[in-house]
């Protein structure tokens, strides 16, 4: 078993720790928001309600609708919830340590780097979850009425609208930019702590 | 892990976790199902793969042909669409209830996790924590992705859709009312008739009496409609009833054609009386001749006299011709014009009078 290495919270490591923590915190919060905010909204009497990755509430003329596909998708979001919570928790811990104690253990910093890397991985997961939601909701009919023996039945249907979070996840470039940003910060932080770790390890010995 | 990934790598044994409520109460959310490749039959619960094998269904087979399989979730109102037999990946052979595996697994994971975390916090080799964090979340996500069969997201769901269909259209025996009876009225209610119109012989007529009676539309037909039709008709006549019915959720625009035939006057002799009935919805002008005959001393018929008169035979009403007590016999001759054609009817009445 190795020993715990306390890294000094000095510039520029201190700055990079705060930047990394804020990035991890923001990404974790963004992921939480993407999980819980509706990606698709149905407006109208026929079908109304909202669909997020983690939940959905659809109503057909006021009565709740059970959608097998949408009911299953929240289960896939559990790892994403865990990753987001982890990122938020670790970033808060790091900020606390940096502000209050001026030292931070290498374990916590590695956790922070891990959280950033996990966020990169989960960008793809969000892309996939969003596709599941879009596919499931696109199969929900929105138009009613038509022509039959009684005549032309004109009934106002519903409008299916994708919200900004869905458009954001659906875009390729913002996600790639976010991924590159997170990876870069993780790499820089790794590089910064690598300067201290050999010296500190020797001192601890 | 191998079992969880089995459906991607074509392994003979597979394990999946139920993530939907479609198979309740047989399978609950969180139950693990062990499944094998092999023969299956109607009634078996099978794992069906979608286009990509991430989206799988665990449903029961309700019908089967040599090429297709029809499945249904026990809790679903209707069956799924037929799918090719090659989409059936596994047959479920054993179910591990969620209460049997989730609590023990959580306890073990918490115990190991706590010890591991304690070790990490106390001090770990450089890089170990980083690898642990990344591996943990990657494996967690992979396990979830591979273990959970997601119900096929493209499946159409059953929604209550407003519907109304026409059962019958008719006009009343007295030609005064048009009735459209609706059926299969679902998820909607008739409120009122916004407007209605009748198109006959190229003209539009606005009916005065329009109403909704239960699930039926009743439209009063003005006499002018029939008069216009009669003036322009050379055989059967048609007119259209247009309507805009306000529903609680929208509108119904109906266009209903009605066809009927013009008929000759019904002429019958009952008790030495000639009864004429006009079955048409318009009045007809008729001219009558009543020719009286008697016998001379040689027993030959001779014409005594003729009475003539004209009258209007009103719609759907009867007219009675009662000859006088003159001679031994008489002929009632009726002439009228129906659809620009002269029609003559003759009836012998014998004996005559009261």
- Strands of the largest sheet of chain A, in order across it? 5-4-3-2-9
CATH superfamily of the largest domain in chain B: Umud Fragment, subunit A
Uncertain regions of chain A: pLDDT < 50 for 5+ in a row? none
CATH-scheme architecture of chain A = Up-down Bundle
Shape of chain B: rod-shaped
Q: Could you name the CATH class of chain A? A: Mainly Alpha
Strand order of the largest sheet of chain B: 1-2-7-3-4-5-6
**Nearest-integer average pLDDT of chain A:** 83
**E-strand count of chain A:** 9
Rg of chain B (CA only): 42 Å
Q: In what range is the share of β-strand residues of chain A?
A: 15-25%
Mean pLDDT of chain B: 84
Tell me about this structure:
The complex is a heterodimer of chains A (205) and B (354). Chain A is built from 6 helices and 9 strands. The longest helix of chain A has 33 residues, at 106-138. Chain A is α+β, with helices and mostly antiparallel strands and 205 residues long. Chain A has one domain: Butyryl-CoA Dehydrogenase, subunit A, domain 3, CATH 1.20.140. Chain B is α+β, with helices and mostly antiparallel strands and 354 residues long. In chain B, a hairpin with a 2-residue loop joins strand 21 and strand 22. The longest helix of chain B is centred in the N-terminal third of the chain and has 25 residues, at 98-122. The model of chain B has no long low-confidence stretch (mean pLDDT 84). Classes of the chains: A alpha+beta (205), B alpha+beta (354). Chains A and B meet through helix 2, helix 3, helix 4 and strand 8 of A and helix 2, helix 3, strand 8 and strand 15 of B. Strand 8 of chain A pairs antiparallel with strand 15 (250-260) of chain B.
């Amino acid at each position: 078993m190795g020993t715990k290495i306390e890294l000094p919270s000095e510039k520029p490591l201190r700055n990079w720790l705060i930047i990394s923590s804020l990035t991890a915190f923001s990404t974790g919060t963004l992921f939480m928001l993407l999980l819980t905010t509706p990606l698709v909204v149905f407006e109208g009497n026929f079908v109304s309600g909202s669909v997020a990755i983690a939940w959905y509430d659809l109503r057909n003329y006021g009565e709740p609708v059970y959608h097998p596909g949408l009911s299953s998708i929240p289960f896939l979001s559990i790892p994403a919830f865990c990753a987001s919570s982890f990122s938020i928790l670790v970033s808060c811990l790091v900020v606390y340590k940096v502000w209050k104690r001026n030292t931070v253990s290498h374990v916590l910093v590695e956790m922070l780097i891990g959280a950033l890397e996990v966020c990169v991985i989960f960008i793809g997961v969000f892309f996939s979850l969003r596709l599941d939601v879009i596919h499931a909701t696109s199969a929900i009919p929105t138009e009613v009425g038509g022509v039959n023996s009684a005549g032309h039945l004109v009934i106002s249907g519903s409008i299916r609208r994708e919200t900004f979070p869905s458009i954001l996840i659906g875009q390729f470039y913002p996600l790639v930019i976010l991924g590159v940003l997170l990876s870069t910060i993780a790499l820089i932080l790794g590089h910064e702590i690598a300067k201290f770790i050999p010296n500190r390890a020797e001192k601890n010995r | 892990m191998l079992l969880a990934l089995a459906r991607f790598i074509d392994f003979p044994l597979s394990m999946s976790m139920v993530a939907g409520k479609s198979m309740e109460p047989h399978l609950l959310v969180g139950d693990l199902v062990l499944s094998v490749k092999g023969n299956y039959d109607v009634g078996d619960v099978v794992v069906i793969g979608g286009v990509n094998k991430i989206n799988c269904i665990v449903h029961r087979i309700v019908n089967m042909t040599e090429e297709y399989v029809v499945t249904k979730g026990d809790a679903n109102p209707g069956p799924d669409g037929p799918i090719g037999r090659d989409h059936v990946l596994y047959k479920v052979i054993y179910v591990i209830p969620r209460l049997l595996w989730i609590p023990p697994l959580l306890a073990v994971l918490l115990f190991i996790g706590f010890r591991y975390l304690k070790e990490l916090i106390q001090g770990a080799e450089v890089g170990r924590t980083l690898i642990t964090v990344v591996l943990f979340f990657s494996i967690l996500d992979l396990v979830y992705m591979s273990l959970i069969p997601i119900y096929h997201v493209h499946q159409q769901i059953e929604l209550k859709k407003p519907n109304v269909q026409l059962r019958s259209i008719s006009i009343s025996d007295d030609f005064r009312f048009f009735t459209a009876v609706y059926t299969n009225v679902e998820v909607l209610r008739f409120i009122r008739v916004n407007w209605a119109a009748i198109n006959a012989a190229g003209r539009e007529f606005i009916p005065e009496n329009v109403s909704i009676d239960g699930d039926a539309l009743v439209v009063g037909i003005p006499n002018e409609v029939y008069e216009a039709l009669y003036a322009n008709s050379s055989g059967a006549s048609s007119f259209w009833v247009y309507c805009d019915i306000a529903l609680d959720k929208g509108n119904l625009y109906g266009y209903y054609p009605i066809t009927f035939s013009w008929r000759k006057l019904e002429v019958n002799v009952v008790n030495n009386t000639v009864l004429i009935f006009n079955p048409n919805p318009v009045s007809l002008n008729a001219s009558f001749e009543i020719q009286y005959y008697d016998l001379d001393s040689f027993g030959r018929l001779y014409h005594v006299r003729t009475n003539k008169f004209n009258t209007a035979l009103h719609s759907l009403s009867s007219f009675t011709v009662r000859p006088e007590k003159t001679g031994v016999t008489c002929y009632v001759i009726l002439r009228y014009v129906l659809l620009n054609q002269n029609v003559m009817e003759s009836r012998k009445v014998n004996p005559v009078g009261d």
